[in-house]
Design brief:
alpha/beta, FAD/NAD(P)-binding domain, D-Amino Acid Oxidase, Chain A, domain 2, globular
Length: 417
């Protein structure tokens, strides 16, 4: 327990870096009462902190930014991610911030109805509805559950080290944090990943730009409980219900890497990119706040050969950043957290052994989803125009059950089925 340790500067994140290898002299077996260092306070890092604390471990979370601001406005939490948060005791709070999404509708850029898909059969099959949420709402939920005062901000991890008995994060200000294990949840440009692999693994540009934000829900944009997706010309525009009577919107369009637009010009850019698209899309562009609209060049990572090295593990985007075309990025980070803590609490050979079991459970699933999302990205965004047109044609004849069965397959492969 934390109270059983001798008080010293190792608990002070601003103290000079001193590595102590003897955390728990009264426990001969180091699989119990562990101390975990988590680098990164995004969805994956905070969920991991919550899960490990519930397991009785001491957890310290470090974040490089001085203010926690989510990347992106919203996120689709499918049922596999929701189930993990339910198991962590957060289900009621998640339901309160989640949108009621009962159906999906695909329409063409000329406003032709392509497909209508009820999500009720999916919900019945997997046993849990999805909850699209605003990222800020989700971050507040997770931060409150973990404890905002326990997240150390302004701690930019510049290096990590490990011995046979400990792992240490070293920060730009000269301080460090040492624990029995270290979790790199520090995003697509992870410092921890560079140490673990012994080299830099640069993100791969996926070939398109994503604009996203939040607007008040309105029936002249879309039904309040339907996820509407407009597709055409190798682009898409979408509105998804989230809590607070809002739509999370996103646009996607192929674009060369390195293009920039001043925030105030983002509405004009979208108006040009989606000129001639249906009236709901035009109304959305008119109503969005360009200064509160995110503009992101989307990247992913090549599947990694390892997620673990000794007492150090990667989690979330640090280990398997994916394009958002399957809506599984956040869910997979949440799954990582669940599998990680379960591996630690159900085995007692060693920390390194438990982390290897975590890698075995996560490596193939996350790699497959990264590649599947990459393939879907190519289809949506017109890498092969004939293939993209074939997808548009398929939407007209595809059975709704084919869509819900594919979603259920992904969801049911999660840790809670």
């Amino acid at each position: 327990m934390l109270g059983d340790r001798q008080p010293d500067d190792s608990l002070n994140p601003d103290a000079p870096c001193r590595i102590s290898l003897d955390f728990y002299p009264q426990f001969p077996h180091k699989m119990y009462n562990l101390k975990a260092i988590v680098v990164g306070a995004g969805i994956g890092g905070l969920t991991t902190g919550i899960a490990l604390r519930r397991a009785g471990y001491a957890v310290e979370v470090y974040e490089k930014t001085r203010e926690l601001r989510p990347a992106g406005a919203g996120i689709s939490l499918w049922s596999n991610g929701v189930k993990v948060l339910n198991a962590l005791g957060l289900g009621d709070r998640l339901a309160a911030i989640g949108g009621q999404m009962n159906a999906m509708t695909y329409r063409s850029h000329t406003d032709e109805l392509l497909s209508e898909i009820s999500l009720q059969p999916l919900i019945a099959t997997v046993g849990q509805r999805p909850y699209p949420v605003a990222r800020t709402d989700l971050q507040v939920l997770l931060l409150t559950a973990f404890g905002e005062a326990d997240v150390h901000l302004g701690k930019h991890c510049v290096a990590v080290e490990q011995t046979a008995d400990s792992a240490t994060a070293i920060f730009a200000d000269g301080s460090c944090a040492t624990g029995d294990l270290l979790i790199g949840a520090d995003g697509v440009r992870s410092t921890v990943r560079q140490y673990l692999l012994g080299r830099e693994q640069a993100p791969r540009y996926a070939g398109y730009v994503n604009w996203n934000g939040l607007v008040p829900a309105s029936p002249d944009l879309a039904p309040a409980d339907v996820w509407v997706i407009y597709v055409g010309e190798g682009k898409r525009a979408s509105m998804m219900p989230v809590g607070g009577d809002r739509f999370y919107f996103f646009f996607g369009s192929p674009m060369s890497a390195g293009t920039t637009v001043e925030p105030a010009q983002r509405r004009d850019e979208l108006a040009q990119q989606f000129a001639g698209w249906p009236q709901p899309v035009q109304r959305l562009i008119e109503r969005l706040n360009p200064l509160q609209t995110n503009r992101l060049e989307i990247s992913d990572l090549e599947p990694l050969e390892h997620l673990v090295n000794g007492r150090i593990a990667l989690l979330g985007d640090a280990g398997h950043a994916t394009t958002p075309t399957l809506g599984q990025g956040g869910c997979q980070a949440i799954e990582d957290a669940e599998v990680l803590w379960r591996s630690l609490v159900t085995t007692n050979i060693s920390v390194a052994d438990a982390l290897q079991r975590y890698e075995q459970a996560r490596k193939e699933r996350t790699a497959n989803l990264v590649l599947k999302a990459r393939k879907r990205t190519a289809t949506i965004y017109g890498k092969d125009p004939d293939q993209t047109q074939a997808w548009y044609d398929q939407l007209k004849v595809e059975s709704p059950s084919d869509v819900t069965d594919a979603l259920a397959k992904v969801i049911l492969a999660g840790p809670y089925g």
